[in-house]
Amino acid sequence: MKVGFIGVGTMGAGMASNLQKAGHTLVINDLTRQAASHHLNAGGVWAESPKAVAEQCEVVFASLPAPPDVQLVALGENGLLAGFKKGSVFFDLSTNSPTVVRDIHAKFLEKGVHMLDAPVSGGPKGAASGKLAVWVGGDQAIFEKYKHVLDGMSDQARYVGPIGAGSVAKLVHNCAGYIIQTGLAEVFTMGVKGGVEPLALWEAVRQGAVGRSRTFDRMIDSFLINKYDPPNFALRLAHKDVSLATALGRELGVPMRLAHLTLEEMTEAMGRGWGNRDSRSSMLLQSERAGVKIAVEPERAKESLAKEPRNTNDPRA
C-alpha cells in the first residue's frame, strides 16, 4: 500500500522504517530531503510538501514535535488538506492538544477527509523495534480499516474513543510519569541523606509492594472500581507512614513538597472519617473536586488486567 509519512525524526524514523519492512511504499516529506535519505534509499518516494504527499496517498501519518507543527502540516497553504481527496485519512502520531486535534478534525470533516489522533508511547527504541503503543481517537470504522497499517509499526494499536481521546490518554500517561519521577526524586534524596547508599536503597524498595507491581495495576482493585472496603491497607496506617516520612525529611532538611501535599490529602480524608477504609480512599477527594465519578464494573476491570501488558520501553516519548 502507498502510505504518506511526514516527519522522520527521532520517533518517526523508526516507525517509517517499520512500515517499509511491512511492505508499504512510503511517500515522504520532512524539513529537508537529507533527513529522509535512509528511507529514500530503502525505496521511499520524496514529496516536496505535505500537499504533494496527500495528492499521492489515501492515508498519511505525521510524527511532529508540537501542535503548531501539526496545524501547519495539516492546514497550511501547502498542507495536507489542500491535497487530500475526499475520503482520505490523516493519522496524527504526535503528542498533541485535544483542542487542536478536534479543530483540525472539524475542518477536515467539512471537506470529507478523516482525521484521527494517534499518539504513540514506547520511545525511540520502541519506534525502532515496533514494540509501540498507539492510542487512537476518532472514527472507529476508519481505525479498523487501517489497523493493518498501524500494525506494521506497532504491536499495541488500540482504539480509545472519539476524536481527541488518544491525545487525552497520552497526556494522562505522560503527566503521570513525570509526577511519579518527581516524587521518586523527592523520597530518594531523603533516603540517601538519611544514610542509605543509593543502589542499596533502590534494590530494597524495588522489592517492596510498590516496586513489584506495575504502576497502573494498583488502581484496578480500588480507585477504578470505586471499592475501598474492606481495606487492603488502612488509610490511618498509610497516614502514619507518610507522617513519619515527612518528619524525617524535616529532620534532614530535605524539601518534600509532594509528600506534604499527599499528607494533606490523607489528613482531609481522615477528617471525613475514612481512617479504616483503604489507603487509596483519599483519591476520592480529587474525584469530588473534578466532578467525576469513576466506577468500572469489577468484571470488566479484571478482564482488562488479565490482558497482555504493553511494552516496557521509555513510556514518555
Name the features.
three-stranded mixed β-sheet, six-stranded parallel β-sheet, 2 domains, N-(1-d-carboxylethyl)-l-norvaline Dehydrogenase, domain 2, single chain, 317 residues, 12% strand, alpha/beta, disordered C terminus, 15 helices, Rossmann fold
From the spread of the alpha carbons, the general shape counts as elongated
* Rg, Cα atoms, Å: 23 Å
Strands, total number? 9
Q: Based on the structure given, which CATH architecture of the largest domain is correct?
A: 3-Layer(aba) Sandwich
Helical proportion, percent range:
40-55%
How far apart the termini lie comes to 27 Å
Q: Report strand order across the widest sheet.
A: 3-2-1-4-5-6
Any idea of the CATH topology of the largest domain?
Rossmann fold
Structural class: alpha/beta
Q: Give the CATH class of the largest domain.
A: Alpha Beta
The CATH H-level homologous superfamily of the largest domain: NAD(P)-binding Rossmann-like Domain
SSE order, one letter for each helix or strand: EHEHEHEHHEHEEHEHEHHHHHHH
Low-confidence stretches: 310-316
Question: Main sheet?
Answer: 6 strands, parallel
What percentage of amino acids are in beta strands?
Answer: 5-15%
Number of helices: 15
The overall pLDDT, averaged over residues, is 95
Number of domains: 2
Report on the structure:
The chain has 317 residues and is an alpha/beta fold. It folds into two domains: 2-169, NAD(P)-binding Rossmann-like Domain (Rossmann fold), CATH 3.40.50; 184-306, N-(1-d-carboxylethyl)-l-norvaline Dehydrogenase, domain 2. The protein has helices spanning 12-21, 37-41, 50-56, 67-75, 80-83, 98-110, 123-129, 140-150, 165-193, 198-206, 209-212, 235-252, 257-271, 283-290, 298-306, and strands spanning 2-6, 25-29, 45-46, 59-62, 89-92, 114-117, 120-121, 133-137, 156-161. The longest helix is centred in the middle third of the chain and has 29 residues, at 165-193. It is elongated, with a radius of gyration of 23 Å.
